């Protein structure tokens, strides 16, 4: 048997790998293909913030939440987070999970009802991984 290795995958190959992991590891607990959920915030048509996540097993996983630096502190991130939480709750989610490498950002989530479930010091040298969860 000769195996070839490559450093790139097509989008179809990537999707196949993900589906096989779900089939193998998650099917036993009823998981299906995660459903993507995204929201954007625009000012005069220009994207200034957004949130990207996935829904699986009645849990919302917020993967990315971003606001353009000059617009931070104006509630845009809070509104994006509320929107994705509300939409996920309407789709049957009971919890939301978000991870942060920033203690300051984790405190923002805590102020919005999240609780720290786990902290892994030096996840990346000098940064801790903080996993937070909120009941929806």
TrEMBL record:
<dbReference type="GO" id="GO:0016747">
    <property type="term" value="F:acyltransferase activity, transferring groups other than amino-acyl groups"/>
</dbReference>
<keyword id="KW-0808">Transferase</keyword>
<dbReference type="InterPro" id="IPR000182">
    <property type="entry name" value="GNAT_dom"/>
</dbReference>
<dbReference type="Pfam" id="PF00583">
    <property type="entry name" value="Acetyltransf_1"/>
</dbReference>
<protein>
    <submittedName>
        <fullName>N-acetyltransferase</fullName>
    </submittedName>
</protein>
<dbReference type="InterPro" id="IPR016181">
    <property type="entry name" value="Acyl_CoA_acyltransferase"/>
</dbReference>
<feature type="domain" description="N-acetyltransferase">
    <location>
        <begin position="1"/>
        <end position="136"/>
    </location>
</feature>
């Amino acid at each position: 048997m000769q195996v070839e290795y490559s450093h790139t995958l097509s989008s179809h190959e990537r999707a196949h790998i993900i589906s096989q992991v779900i089939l193998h590891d998650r099917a036993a607990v009823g998981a299906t293909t995660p459903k993507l959920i995204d929201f954007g915030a625009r000012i005069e048509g220009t994207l200034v913030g957004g949130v990207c996540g996935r829904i699986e097993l009645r849990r919302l996983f917020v993967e990315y939440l971003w606001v353009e630096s000059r617009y931070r502190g104006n509630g845009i991130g809070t509104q994006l987070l509320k929107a994705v939480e509300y939409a996920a709750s309407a789709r049957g989610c009971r919890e939301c999970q978000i991870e942060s490498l920033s203690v300051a950002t984790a405190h923002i989530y805590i102020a919005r009802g999240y609780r720290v479930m786990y902290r892994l010091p030096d996840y990346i040298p000098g940064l801790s991984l903080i996993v937070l969860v909120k009941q929806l």
